[in-house]
Amino acid sequence: MNHIPVMLNEVLELITTHxxxxxxxxxxxxxxLGGYSQAxxxxxxxxxxxxxxxxEEAIRLSRERLKDYEDTSRFEAIHxxxxxxxxxxxxxxxxxxxxxxxxxxxMQLTLPERGFSFNSEGLLxxxxxxxxxxxxxxxxxxxxxxxxxxxxxxxxxxxxxxRLIASAIKKNKSAINTTSELVNVIRSxxxxxxxxxxxxxxxxxxxxxxxxxVNNETEELERVIMxxxxxxxxxxxxxxxxxxLEDRIIKHSFRQWQNDNKGRILTKHPLTPxxxxxxxxxxxxxxxxRAFLTIKYNAKFLI
Length: 303
Ligand SMILES: C[S@@+](CC[C@H](N)C(=O)[O-])C[C@H]1O[C@@H](n2cnc3c(N)ncnc32)[C@H](O)[C@@H]1O
Fold this sequence. Notes:
The protein is 45% helix and 12% strand. It is an alpha/beta fold. Strands 3-2-1-4-5-7-6 form a 7-stranded mixed beta sheet, sandwiched between helices. Helix 8 crosses helix 12. The structure holds S-adenosylmethionine. The site of S-adenosylmethionine (SAM) has 22 residues, from helix 2 and strand 2. Residues 3, 5, 30, 32-36, 52-55, 58, 81-83, 101, 103-105, 128, 220 line the site of S-adenosylmethionine (SAM).
């Protein structure tokens, strides 16, 4: 199982430029398979990393990968939702760096039983935290009315044919329980010429929308932003996002923080992956990186 970390060089460069000091304390809020964590532990020799993930399988795999660092107390991982950042910050000494690499990992996408992928057959689950969250994607399809489904597909997937697809789902004679059943309904709802013009898999946007909705991804992002804006010490905050809705939330929050003198925006325009990175890892193509440096309140008047 592999996940190629996205925009890793840019993340390391930002930390080197804006947070380089001995005994760095780094919070990797979206541990995934530990790609970012491993790189910072290697690069910053005496740093400490706390990794969070709401997916227990990600915690298990990254602990396995980073066992040597865990054994020397440089790395710890906890099963947690970054939306609960308030509690996490209260229980630990301050962090110098906060890293967020939003969305799903390749592990989640490639395990068919997790139901995230339109390319592999599995139950339509899509919960990042199957032991904690109760509503699966199949439940959402069954329990939501046509209008609500269309809104989910439009808001979170920017799907132009949201109403057509929602109507086909509700008209389908039997409940939709698997990834391939959903793909088939979407394919049958969209005329062939439309599918040809889409330039992507016809189910991609609907799958993305359902995943964001099932996991409350926008709400969790808004929750963590409310905690981060209370930080009152020097810290570097890095977000890599893959969806315009998330990028907008991050962009507006950073602007607001800067206007409120909480620190400064380091990326006037978002950084995006180089052509060669996209060539090596097509999944990186929609990534946008934004960074902010918070400044301790008393020091703000000196700059
Ligand atoms: C794109 S992957 C991170 C990959 C990681 N940077 C690496 O290099 O291996 C995103 C991870 O964030 C986790 N995640 C998403 N939303 C989360 C949340 N609200 N709280 C904690 N983890 C979350 C997902 O379960 C997934 O494992």
